[in-house]
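hey all, quick one before standup. I had two proteins in the batch that finished overnight and I want to keep them in one place so we stop losing track of which output belongs to which input. First protein below, input sequence then structure tokens straight from the run.
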Amino acid sequence: MKKILLLFVVFPWMPLFAQQPDTISLNYCQQLALDNYPLIKQKELLSEAAGLKIKNLNTNYFPQISLNGQATYQSAVTEIPQISPMFNFPSMSKDQYKVTLDVNQMVWDGGITSAQKKLETSGLQVEQMSVDVEIAKIKEQVNLIYFNILLAQQNEKVVGNIQDELQSKLKKIEAGIKNEVLLQSNADVLKAEIIKTEQQLIELANAKSAALNMLAEFINRPLYETTELKIPDDIAIVPVFDNKRLEMQLLDLQMNKLDISKSLVNTKVMPRFFAFGQGGYGRPGFNMLSNDFDFFYIVGAKMTWNISGFFQSGREKRIIDIQKNILNTQKETFDKKLKIASQKDAADITKYKQLISKDDEIIRLRQNITKTASTQLENGVITATEYVTELNAEMSARLNLELHKIQMKIAEINYLNLMGKL
């Protein structure tokens, strides 16, 4: 009997869970696979890390407080020469001590903290979308395994029906042999074909078991040999290019991040204003003519402005513009590839629809031929070998129909997945 048409590769067999009837759909499997894939946890971790970084950036607005202590000994100190005996200026000690509490308060940082927070938020969006892009690939793997199982499931039904037909025909042939109307060789030919169908069913069952185990691992729930996979409903495909892929959204987010980086460059050349204060105790204090320990304090405001930043900011902005142009090129390239791929999938959908209509016609004709051959076999006009040849041709036509149906569903799903609409 002709080799059964299969899409899948036979994976190493693993035992399935206990038998239990079940019915599942493609959407159900996709959703469970996404919910249970370990990579999904990474989004939460990324969000948590970004939240902590933003909290750290918020501390830029908090007062910066530091406690400092210092003890020194110096080889010389400032001395005032004695002009007359009437003026006796004290001499300063060469050992000096100081304990201070310094406070710095940011008044305006030129917008750098706000830009850094926006950049961190944008970076989080990019990283999370990158995870989404990777997770979306899981759907493609689930789709492949699902349709492999579905094809095996449909082929089992076709081969099972052919086996039933052969067994039914064998009973009639054996009755003819008893009546010495037909030869024993006819029964032997049918028995051999029945054994072949049993082999095919074993191959299908093992391949289906392996694929079910793989799918069960993806969706993190048990599946059984009796699990029935629903054929996806017909999908109305409108062959209009409409790119909704996550990769395009990722590129847009990366460009937005570059825009924010550009605004961050602008903040680097802005002045910064601070308020500060210092209080302390030590020797000498602010009165340099006193050699006693004393308390002291100072308050004030200051500005810093990195003028040299103007010479670098222009080049940094130019680098960012070049990076945006690179991303634009990647978007155009990705979009172009999708357009080419979508043309193939759209053509495949049309092709399989046409093949299926021809399959129906071939099956109808093959059924008529097989019925005629069946009658001729029972009447001894043809041999069992000739009958099996026609029966195999009918089975091949039925298998082709199931293959084309699955291939059309795959093409439809691939088209929607290609457009990012799944």
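OK second protein, same deal, sequence then tokens:
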Amino acid sequence: MVKAIKWAFGLALPVLAVLSSVLAQSQADTPAAAQARAEIPAVEALLKRVPDRAAVLYYLAGDYLLLGESQKALALLKECVAANEGFDPDRDPVFRPLYGDARFRSLVMQAEKQYPVVDRAQVAFSVPEKDLIPEGLAFDEKAQVFYLSSLFHKKIVRFGMDGKVSDFVPEGKYDLLPICGLRDEIADNSLWAAGCEDDGRGELYHFSADGSRLEHISPPTPGKHLFNDLVLRGNSEIYLTDSLANQVYRIERKGHKFTTLSFPRPLFYPNGITLSDDQKLLYVADAFGVFVFDLEQNTSHEVDRGPSGTLSGIDGLYWYKGDLVGVQNGIGVPRITQFSLAPGGLRVQQEKTLVYRSPQLGTTTTGAIRNSDFLFIENSQIDNREGNRILDPAKLEPVHIGKVALSPVP
């Protein structure tokens, strides 16, 4: 789920729009400001622990702005953009109060010069149901079908290579939560789905090839949870990110036993997750970077971002022949990036931007790999949803699934 949702928890998007015209004191009284005030000390403590300092600066800038401290926010953004890693706050709703500020516009212009338009994608499919508000996309290679999740209608649709769309799990059939990440099970064409309610509820669902619900797994502990994305390891384990509990779980398929994985530093909004082809390495993205977890040695390390660029802000994360492919929507203007890893998988040796500043690229979330193409949700329209209502129905449009060729692996 897109990072702006994390910052906006408890704060309706219309309120974010109002923030641009209210006084700093009223900004500091919002629920989101209370959350920001509580987390700033923990985030600032990470400045010496997170390899990508610019990622932490960007996060802190949003928190300070929610407290009404625009000067502090601008100073942090200036340092972040100067790092020349690809951060551009232009489309981030958290920074809407600064949209009319000349200093903010200057930073945006600087970012635009650093990273120009990259538009290699084309529209592969269009889904006519405008108010789906999709978050997850999965591709079943055996059946040659795609699955698309809906946050607004709390359902899953399916479409084939001919583009014909039908409901796989209809709205209201099982009283589902809004659906985030999806993952297909190759052995039997079944599908796993993560339920993710904004109010802090999470559930995991397993559906048969005909859309019947086979399993329903609840969180292991009380408190707020947001089951975001998942991967399957063989037929015995599931790995799942819980963005509100700031945890990654190993779930044993038999008995549904949860085990929490350990990482070198605290996680902040863990999100995208993927496995290496040999299923020995698990990669997990959080707000500030990517971790690799060795599933045989039970050890973890933060992936070195390499000589330039950033691994932060990744929503959808995918493995492709030794590379990582990331949908980065937590760095301001979103982009699709392919990261070539050094042998051993602990360091980025080359970064290639595949899609950036494309006119068609709206609020993108996740994707799926088919052969050597990456297909992704171009316009989730997630910023046009508030709970059980659409903010502006007139702005809705068909959901477009973009396609971009992945770079050959050296």
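Flagging for whoever picks this up: Residues 3-26 have pLDDT under 50 and may be disordered. The longest strand covers residues 348-356.
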